[in-house]
Amino acid sequence: MTTPSNPIFRPDSEPGHLADTRNLLRNEYAADRRPWVVAYSGGKDSTLVLQLVYDLLLELGSSADKPIFVVASDTRVEAPNVEEYLADRLSRLSSHARANGLPVHVHRVQPTPEQSFWGNLIGKGYPSPTRWFRWCTAKMKIKPSKAVIDGIVREHGGVVLLLGTRLDESASRAQRMEGRATNSRGLNPHGEIPDALVMTPIADWTTDQVWEYLFTHNPPPWGGTHDFMLDLYRQASGGECPVVLDLNTPSCGGSRFGCWTCTVVKEDKSMRGFIESGAAWMRPLNEFRDWLKAIREETSMRDGVRRNDSIGPGPFNSEARKTILRRLLELEKTVGRRLIEDAEIAYIQKQWSDKFDVTDSALAIAREFGREVGALKIKPEDSFSDLALIEELAPRFEVQSIWATDLYHLVTERYPSLDSPRSHQQLLDDVIKVVENAVRQADRTEPAA
Question: What pLDDT does 409 receive?
Answer without folding.
Answer: 63
